[in-house]
Amino acid sequence: MFKHEIGRKLKAARENANLKQSDVAKIIGSTFQKISSFETGRTRVDLETLIRLCEIYNVDADYILSTDKKNSNNLTLKPEESNLIVKFRQLPDSVKEDITDFINMKYNKLTISFLKNK
């Protein structure tokens, strides 16, 4: 399970970096099939390759390796949700505040609408 979670995070980080598996393979001197096998969890990624991928994707290895279940609230994120979180974390705080305000406003509006129609 752990290697599948690492693979999911690597795929999300690669997609967030707007790179194809073949692009990454070329950069690290490998094949797109090998990148695919890391991302699907079929193959464990070695430490040297993991560090290189984190550099290419501009993500912290702690994020890729973290398995902190106590803060997860038992949520399983879809790849596009992980992508959004990675992008969100790279934004300036002022923009994060604007986005958070917008999401809260939309959520509250939908909740009120739902309650009225009940």
TrEMBL record:
InterPro entries listed in its UniProt record: Cro/C1-type_HTH, Lambda_DNA-bd_dom_sf
GO molecular function terms noted in the UniProt entry: DNA binding
Keyword terms: DNA-binding
Keyword DNA-binding annotated: yes
Residue stretches making up the HTH cro/C1-type domain: 10-64
Pfam family of the protein (one): HTH_3
Entry-linked CDD domains: HTH_XRE
Native organism: Clostridium acetobutylicum (strain ATCC 824 / DSM 792 / JCM 1419 / IAM 19013 / LMG 5710 / NBRC 13948 / NRRL B-527 / VKM B-1787 / 2291 / W)
Record protein name field: Predicted transcriptional regulator
